[in-house]
């Protein structure tokens, strides 16, 4: 690595050297950006990361006996059964919380939720990964596609469009230090996709060993935002393990990336074009900001796929493009440009923190007195050298082996906008590229109304979702559930049946 640094162009040295002058108040400082992201959501975690020196306060359930994974059935104490199903029926749903003692770690435990399908136990197993990097998947569980919706009084009600309507659903707190996942050793904090994907693969092995009845079900990887990095790496790791006949065969059928960051070189170039198209900036702004692109592009190319020193230079250089657009746009919500942020507050997800800080809830989940870290600035900073890496490079191999990819994006998201996502998907070189590019956009209809536009060729699909921002399942829950059902069952072009009600699916 040191030899590589010596051949970096001088302007990259200047960018890297400038980090020495950064302060916590500097808008280019990763710690500042991490804190801003967290406050956008009105989240104020008590800890910056779950690295625990005194573990006497933690229920170390994952160390019971020789088992790597220990879980328990649970029921949220503040659940309100508006459907009147009765306690016995709710208990039969099969809601689990657990810890996995990460095999290749010093002392790390990965927390997860597992919700059995409200439909059929033969439904696919779907894992959801929230991005950040460093944000807990409970954000999606309670505000997007989990079985519950959270009310202002911290009570929970059924989510009519939860993805457990059509799948056996996993939410995982990762990387280590996020959510309820923890370690006593800072060496367990991950810095790249190899560490992230290896941990997730090992977790799956333990999960299917504990639940062999689900091992033959179709398996799909899903998530959003920075999970545009996690998901391709994780899918490649699963596929690699299957081909090498490592452990339990995982029946990987596909992976879906929602408003993700996957190929920064293409996606950062799309920022100004998207902002101009949507009226956020003017033509003069477009030309001015684009003068910064050459430095950004060069640094990203040097960063490549390996995470070299140029990746920090790329992070700093390229973020000036986004921050310049933001400074012109003012208080616009960069997750949904139809909305304004009130000060730093773009969303209010504080009810989730309040809920998961309650002793009754933590007792039900079996996590002891551990603090819930909604989003970790420490994990965010640890992944900085990973940020500008291109994760598209491993995808063509998966497509050639018939593993499906769905890239979807809400049309009003700026930060991981649909235009940048569409461009990298179209630019990706694989055997079906020409046919995919030539295929027509087709309306994605839900209940007879156009909910988006999509195109498909072979295993690859791209869907632009109407009337949605960064978090598609939150903004368009019915369309998102329809998307999941149709994609996992065969094709987005199939007409979608209405989601079964909770009562009818028992």
TrEMBL record:
Lineage top rank: taxon: Eukaryota
PANTHER family: CARBOXYPEPTIDASE (PTHR11802:SF466), SERINE PROTEASE FAMILY S10 SERINE CARBOXYPEPTIDASE (PTHR11802)
Location in or out of the cell: Secreted
GO MF annotation terms: serine-type carboxypeptidase activity
Primary localization class, coarse: secreted
Family assignment from sequence similarity: Belongs to the peptidase S10 family.
Keywords for the protein's UniProt record, in alphabetical order: Carboxypeptidase, Disulfide bond, Glycoprotein, Hydrolase, Protease, Secreted, Signal
Membrane spanning stretches: none
GO biological process, one term: proteolysis
Pfam family, one: Peptidase_S10
Top EC category: hydrolase
GO cellular component terms given for this protein: extracellular region; vacuole
Task of the protein: Probable carboxypeptidase.
Known EC number: 3.4.16.-
Xref: InterPro entries: AB_hydrolase_fold (IPR029058), Peptidase_S10 (IPR001563), Ser_caboxypep_his_AS (IPR033124), Ser_caboxypep_ser_AS (IPR018202)
Signal peptide boundaries: 1-21
Name of the protein this chain belongs to: Carboxypeptidase
SUPFAM superfamilies linked: alpha/beta-Hydrolases (SSF53474)
